[in-house]
Design a protein that fits this description.
about 0% strand, mainly alpha, A middle domain of Talin 1, two-stranded antiparallel ribbon, globular
Length: about 325
């Protein structure tokens, strides 16, 4: 009965996280429009950060509770879920074709961030100073995205049309502010409940908080990205579906790990570094290879989607088999 109650609490936490993240994004996007921010910049930054807010807040709460394994697992596991589960499942349902040159310019940036994060983790710890460095890196990425949105070639890029069409409808500033604040408050509450339930579940079933973060929590906090990817694919906005995944991966490494390390510096086990960071890097490399020319350039078909999804399921099975 106790396990059932914990499971139901976790599910309720995931639902609240997904709903409140979307609610916050709608309000924050409307505020940004009132401030004169371009549609493309809103899509690249406000929406991108909004879909990663569940991971950021869950990792922050985990760091406050001195369970850094959950924070690390959430960051790495969410990136694996973004590519293996979300991109894999979406492509299996609806093959995706990427046309955007803006997105292709983000692939080298993604791999640079993956490499930089790995170098920081090589000494088996993430210090507060390194956390600050990751957060500064996220600020740099946001500035770079803003610069990209103003480049002369950008208006002709398909991602511009897709971002503009996908933005929430405009609303009065007062209503938008209330919506953003309410969404953020619910995000904080639901992330706190989720961390408490996830740690309790890990203790009850005898696995580490790292494994819970890499599996249940990572999949649950990726629900906003899954919803966004499926909705974009149904509309035929393939570039937007892939762009959301790239942006989320960047923010997970820079923002999620950065926030957790600033709050509570933590050690990284050799197993996690070799297995989890290594597998996450392999999924990131697979995403880049698909975008740059593995098979049919920029196309993620059903075969590729099935391979990614199968690899994700195998990784989840490996984690629960190993246990720690």
């Amino acid at each position: 009965m106790e396990l059932l109650l914990l499971a139901l609490t976790i599910v309720a936490g995931f639902i609240a996280l997904a709903w409140s993240a979307d609610y916050f994004v709608v309000g924050a996007s409307a505020i940004a429009r009132h401030l004169g921010v371009s549609s493309m910049l809103i899509g690249l930054t406000v929406v991108g950060i909004g879909t990663s807010l569940p991971e950021m807040l869950v990792s922050a709460m985990a760091a406050i509770d001195a369970t850094p394994g959950l924070a690390l697992g959430n960051a790495l596991g969410s990136n694996v879920a973004n590519v293996g589960l979300i991109l894999g499942a979406t492509a299996l349902i609806t093959p995706l074709v990427m046309h955007s040159q803006v997105l292709r310019r983000e692939f080298p940036l993604l791999m640079a961030v993956v490499l930089a994060t790995g170098l920081l983790l090589l000494d088996a710890e993430l210090t507060r100073a390194e956390g600050v460095g990751l957060l500064l890196g996220m600020v740099g990425v946001l500035v770079w995205m803003g610069w990209q949105s103003r480049r002369p070639a950008s208006p002709s890029d398909p991602i511009v049309r897709e971002l503009t069409a996908a933005l929430p409808a405009q609303q009065p500033l007062g209503k938008a502010a209330i919506q953003a604040l309410f969404g953020l408050a619910l995000l904080l509450i639901s992330s706190r409940v989720l961390v408490w339930s996830a740690v309790a579940l890990a203790e009850r079933i005898g696995v580490s908080d790292l494994v819970i973060g890499l599996t249940i929590v990572a999949v649950g906090t990726s629900l906003p990205e899954l919803a966004a990817a499926l909705a974009s694919a149904r509309r035929g906005d393939d570039d937007l579906a892939i762009g959301n995944i790239i942006g989320s991966n960047l923010f997970n490494l820079l923002g999620v790990l950065g926030i957790a390390a600033v709050i509570t510096p933590f050690a990284v086990s050799g197993v996690s570094l070799a297995r989890d960071y290594g597998i996450m890097s392999a999924f990131m490399l697979a995403l880049v290879l698909v975008g740059f020319g593995l098979g049919r350039r920029g196309r993620v078909g059903r075969a590729e989607g099935a391979c990614l999804l199968a690899a994700f399921i195998a990784y989840q099975g490996l984690l629960f088999t190993m246990g720690q």
